[in-house]
Prior knowledge:
The structure holds two protein chains of two kinds. Chain A folds into two domains: 42-138 and 261-327, Up-down Bundle (Four Helix Bundle (Hemerythrin (Met), subunit A)); 142-247, no CATH class. Chain A has ten helices and five strands. Chain A has helices at 25-54, 62-65, 79-103, 107-137, 164-167, 197-206, 232-238, 259-292, 294-298, 302-327; strands spanning 142-145, 150-155, 210-217, 227-229, 242-246. In chain A, a hairpin with a 4-residue loop joins strand 1 (142-145) and strand 2 (150-155). In chain A, helix 1 (25-54) runs antiparallel to helix 8 (259-292), helix 1 runs parallel beside helix 10 (302-327) and helix 8 (259-292) packs antiparallel against helix 10 (302-327). The longest helix of chain A has 34 residues, at 259-292. Chain B has two domains: 1-83; 86-127. Chain B is 68% helix and 6% strand. Chain B contains four helices and four strands. Chain B has a two-stranded antiparallel ribbon with strand order 1-2. Chain B has a two-stranded antiparallel ribbon with strand order 3-4. The relative contact order of chain B is 0.08. Chains A and B meet through helix 1, helix 3 and helix 10 of A and helix 1, helix 3 and helix 4 of B. Chain A: This is Cytochrome oxidase subunit III. Chain A: Belongs to the cytochrome c oxidase subunit 3 family. Chain A: GO terms for molecular function: cytochrome-c oxidase activity. Chain A: It comes from Maribacter algarum. Chain A: Keywords: Cell membrane, Membrane, Transmembrane, Transmembrane helix.
Amino acid sequence: MDSTVATGSEENVWGGGNKPLGASYGKLMMWFFLVSDALTFSGLLAAYGFSRFKFIETWPIADEVFTHVPFVHGNFPMIYVAFMTLILIISSVTMVLAVDAGHRMKKNAVIWYMFLTIIGGAIFVGSQAWEWATFIKGDFGALETKGGRILQFVNADTGERAAIADFATTIESERVNHEKKNGVWYYEGQALPSYSLNEVIAGVKANSNIQIRTEAIIQEGEGQGEKTLLSREETLTKLNDAVQVVEGANLIQNEYGSRLFADFFFFITGFHGFHVTSGVVINLIIFFNVVLGTYEKRGHYEMVEKVGLYWHFVDLVWVFVFTFFYLV
Amino acid sequence: MAHEHKLEIFRGLWKFKSNTQKIWGVLAFLCVVTAIEVVLGIMKPEILTDTYFLGMKLLNWIFIILTLVKAYYIAWDFMHLRDEKTALRRAIVWTPIFLVLYLVFILLFEADYVYNVYKDGFVTWNF
Lengths: 328, 127
């Protein structure tokens, strides 16, 4: 029988003695929090789904966006994210082992497993910071049109993406960054891209092997699922629509495609990264408590179990973020 | 405090001698599932990307199902929902599932409508 029957009259209810559903007050409240937090993340991911279905034919392909691995050059889609997922799952395992050791009142084992969990969390946060930096810095650069569409470049000879730095011609001209002191109001101009629009356009015209790749994903027939490649003539016509050079991504511009993609990337992985960071901090506090013997004196390690729940939740969320951002 | 653990997964197909062993077993299973996801994501077999089911690629359905499988084992074994009272487990699990399905249904339906407005309506966006 799993149903709850209150037994015993000596229980001190306000001291947390009575346990509805066999879960202590603290554990129950942790679950309350986790359920509501799960709904927040679901809201963000559902909003991502909304935007994606809205722009289903032009959404960036994640495989082409996240292709880097630290210290190595080359094209490795997904490898690094898979590594991050693995790190988080493993740190989740060390956390369960800490909880398990806590149940058996093995203080030293709890200390070691908590320590490993914190290290895993730190590696994950570091990886995410690196991933952000790479994403913000950008890869190849692109042009943006009046309508806010992104035009990327492909080298027709190799079929590989072409970086604007490789083909843009240098035109001597005075390029002045608008500064606060010159403004009517206290605005500063955007940082100047490494190449001006005219330099990129001249570069495309001078190199006959450069073609534009648009955001549109081919829906049927040859090359299904890939981005549309314009012919050389279409490329030269399309150049007239371009209004500015975009390098990297931020909340306003995104060289990888739809701006919403970058916005959601920053919001969702940022919110998750914030959870991991606070998880590491909370784990650290509990870690020191374990070292000081607080729970040994208290007679049980339930606090470790509670932070464990939070930590697993962070892992759980990442499993979904991984799927919806990087795989699907 | 209830410290008893249910020491079998896959409905009793895989039994463990201790809780620690079960944890490692679940880790192995989760790693295998993640590896399958990554391999499928890199290879993208054409049979799976060309077949559509309910408006979505079969490959994406596989990813989502595998994700739910992983979520199940993380919640059941790592967050030890398996050892909690049935009523608590149901309250925790079904509340978000109901709300999320509801939200996702509404938003994706609406998004598809907006997509069609962009596509067939008189809205210029590619200029």
